[in-house]
Write a structure and sequence with these properties.
By secondary structure, the protein is of the alpha/beta class. The protein has 2 domains: about 140 residues, Response regulator (Rossmann fold); about 200 residues, Rossmann fold. Helices cover about 35% and strands about 20% of the residues. The chain is built from 12 helices and 14 strands. Strands 8-9-7-6-12-13-14 form a 7-stranded parallel β-sheet, with helices on both faces. Strand 13, helix 11 and strand 14 form a beta-alpha-beta unit. Helix 4 packs across helix 8. The radius of gyration is 20 Å and the shape is globular.
Amino acid sequence: MFDKQHPIQVLLVDDSRMITRVVSRIIEEDECFQVIGIASDPYEAVDIMKKKRPDVILLDIEMPRMDGLTFLRKIMSQHPIPVVIFSGVAEKNSHNAIKALGYGAVAILQKPKSIISPDFQVTKVRFMEALKGAAASKPRLKLLQPPSKNDHPYPAEALSEKEAKAGQQMASRQVVVVGSSTGGTQAIEFLMRNLNPGRPGILITQHMPGEFTKAFAERLNSFSPLLIKEAEDGEVVRNNCVYISNGFYHLLIEKHGREYVVRLKNGPLVNLHKPSVDVLFRSAASHAGTHAIGILMTGMGDDGARGLLKMKEAGAMTIAQNEASSVVFGMPREAIRLGATQKVFSLKKILDYLNGYLSDH
């Protein structure tokens, strides 16, 4: 899919020379990529793009003259190109990065802190996976368009009431586990906007750096009738609640008596990812078996495919998103190839299935 004869052309847009120097080095270590230009702001980026159109844009949010969000909206409305947001970790930046996903960005990356950081190798792996996923998404960028309806977030008092009621919900007797990567944030948002109350507990592993997963959960919670939160170790899985993976840890479930409990575990990357979908799916196979539904959605690579097969072998219902509705069909395709899926559904059909699956089923 990617080769050094036709390298992926990347444009960096960031006003920090130190950061762009480090990132250029990371990118060009892989012969499948080529940095075709470095711009300190969107105006310089436009000048470069007039001469050569990039395959992927790596875009900072906070810049002089024009911010990254404004530039992103212009790109996606005029000349769509896969965009990966490249953000610092300040709270404001994390929320703006999540907002960028709603404007059509493919993925979020954290800026590397230092080349001597112990996490630098993990950062490099995430960079290359995100850029490859972004390049693969190019034919299906229209699937990343913002929802047709405007945001009408719940007022603060309604959110507080929803949180209070969540603690009174019964422990879930079934669990739904979902895995996704490139394009997954938009697919998850579609589901969360449209799911009806009365669902069993849902756990979601989305490939995303831990600096942004809390803001992602908060955004989803702001317009969903279900309670959506970043997962916390040891909490009981309850009906009408959705638990988003904390991007610093692998997300799992364990069965304690008649209850399912969330577990967050540190450890090495699995399938080049932490959190890994396979880790979540394997825990569901071991602890939930026939009381679980596994759903593998859009994403680059094969994370989750073998775990979904384990779930099928344990008697769970297993579903893959179809090619037509996937931004990148890699993960679902691999699950289908392995014979891990019982159903292959469009994103809309996945929603219909979940809305028909009541928590007392």
